[in-house]
Design brief:
7-stranded mixed sheet, 19% strand, globular, 5-stranded parallel sheet, Aldehyde Dehydrogenase, Chain A, domain 2, single chain, 2 domains, Aldehyde Dehydrogenase, Chain A, domain 1, alpha/beta, 509 residues
């Protein structure tokens, strides 16, 4: 059932859809165009974070399964069944792939909600449309990749050709299971590579359906494979594999550093990392609209339960407007996000991904209290939802940048407001972090905005908005937030390599 038809589903309808989806879950690995059990037969459980109940047990891939998937992907690549077909044929398959995702939107949406806890309304309105847009954008770019002919001597012809890399290993996170996987697989496939995807063990279910739909769209078997499993075993095996030409990873900075080591220990494969963030939003006293700015502030940290790498969790507010900012944030933001059953379309805040994540966030909140930050609201788990991994939206004021809640990536709905005096201090505070993924700037002074843009160390900077943009916008960071660029045409090109072909011509004939 398409996106357009499921937008009007009510709570009882989604509950019915969820019951049906659970009854037909696919839990095996997807290799060479079909579902298969793991070689050793192991399984692990995936849990509904809204209820704490086990959804199902999923095949647990290990190094042997990674070997099998990579061998399949390499054979498919070398056969040319995908890498050498006409660009328009590859485009048509990816367009059909996007269409099938739209047609299966109902099932895919409910899998995201059950597996990860994401509110169903967010999946329908934001995640799935972005998944479809990503695939279509990358498909459109296939015949836009150009080589070049350089200006050489008359008796030579020099071509610079763009070619796919080969087998690409993708390791995707749990906070946007379908979308983050698609940001990796869509450009990799569009460029002509074959793919082995290792989804996060907390949310593997939708990725399996994604691979199945690719084959139904006409994608050759072996081109897109999925191996469930833990990062410590399956993810490590993929990153160490000598037949993987590139590894694309989104996740923690700690694991990103391990991925770099694995690439060096194996075949020096290319590595694309999108890791953590502690993104600042800077609110200058001359900002154009305080209400709009505060709305962006709480949306930028509470949306998706705060489980967003680019969440604007450090709110730097210039002192002349500090008190008014806090007052408006409390008044408008305290009840803007209400935890509830994510299958209810009226719910805009679901649980965190699991109980461990909930307890970690609550411990960090307690740390903020001990360090002297002022708790304005939240800071606990909501009453009546004890079975789930919920945390109430939380606001801290009077935060210093040396506090743990200002330095560590919380990955939960916790906002920290830090006062500052003038642009120089704002820049110093904003850059005083190991991360550099994103930033926001709020001012009506163009010169001041440009100064801040140039001096802030972040890969994405929004001015008078936050989390805005489209598929033309490169997404990625500086410093220990990683170096990859997702979305955009450059992402597609990053899954290709250049080849120089020099022809010596006989000009005497």
């Amino acid at each position: 059932m398409s996106l357009a038809k499921i937008e009007t589903h009510d709570y009882p309808r989604w509950q019915s859809v969820a019951t049906y989806a659970v009854s037909r879950l696919e839990t095996r690995l997807f290799i060479d165009g079909e579902f298969r059990d793991a070689a050793e037969g192991g399984r692990f459980q995936t849990v509904n974070p809204a209820t704490g109940e086990t959804l199902t047990k999923v095949a647990k891939g290990r190094a042997e399964d990674i070997d099998r998937a990579v061998a399949t992907a390499l054979a498919a690549y070398r056969s040319g069944c995908w890498s050498r077909i006409a660009p328009r044929e590859r485009m048509d398959i990816l367009y059909r792939f996007a269409d099938l995702i739209d047609e299966r939107a109902e099932e895919l949406a409910v899998l995201e909600t059950l597996d990860m806890g994401k509110p169903i309304g967010d999946v329908v309105a934001e995640d799935l449309p972005a998944v479809i847009d990503t695939i279509r954008f990358m498909a459109e770019g296939i015949d836009k990749i150009e080589g070049s002919v350089t200006n050489t001597d008359n008796d030579a012809l020099h071509l610079v050709i763009r070619e796919p890399l080969g087998v690409v290993g993708c390791i995707s996170p749990w906070n946007y299971p379908l979308l983050m996987a698609t940001w990796k697989i869509a450009p990799a496939l569009a460029a002509g590579n074959t793919v082995v995807l290792k989804p996060a063990e907390q949310s593997p279910l939708s990725a399996l359906r994604l691979a199945e739909l690719f084959v139904r769209a006409g994608g050759p078997p072996g081109v897109f494979n999925v191996v469930n499993g833990t990062g410590e075993i399956a993810g490590k095996a993929l990153a160490l594999h000598n037949d993987v030409a590139k590894i694309s990873f989104t996740g923690s900075t700690e694991v990103g550093k391990l991925i770099l080591q694995y690439a060096g220990r194996s075949n020096m494969k290319r590595v694309a990392l999108e890791c953590g963030g502690k993104s600042p939003q800077i609110f200058m006293a001359d900002l154009p609209d305080l209400k709009r700015a505060v709305d962006a502030a709480y949306n930028g940290v509470f949306a998706n339960m705060g489980e967003v790498c680019s969440a604007g969790s450090r709110l730097l507010v210039e002192r002349p407007i500090y008190d008014e900012f806090i007052e408006r944030f409390v008044g408008d933001g305290q009840d803007a996000y209400v935890p509830g059953d994510p299958l209810n379309p009226s719910t805009n805040m679901g649980p965190l991904v699991d109980r461990d994540a909930q307890q970690r966030v609550l411990r960090m909140i307690e740390g903020g209290k001990r360090e002297g930050a002022t708790l304005h609201f939240g800071g606990d788990a909501p009453a009546g939802l004890e079975k789930g991994a919920y945390v109430n939206p939380t606001l801290f004021g009077d935060v210093r940048n040396d506090m743990s809640i200002a330095r560590q990536e919380i990955f939960g709905p916790v906002a920290s407001v830090i006062p500052f005096d003038g642009p120089d201090e704002a820049i110093a505070i904003a850059n005083d972090t190991i991360y550099g993924l994103a930033a926001g700037i709020w001012t009506k002074d163009l010169n001041k905005a440009m100064r801040l843009v140039k001096n802030i160390e972040a890969g994405v900077v929004w001015v008078n908005s936050y989390e805005d943009g489209d598929m033309t916008q490169p997404f990625g960071g500086y410093k220990q937030s990683g170096h990859a660029r997702d979305k955009c045409l450059d992402s597609l090109k990053s899954y290709t390599q250049g080849k120089s072909a020099w022809f010596r011509l006989d000009t005497s004939k």
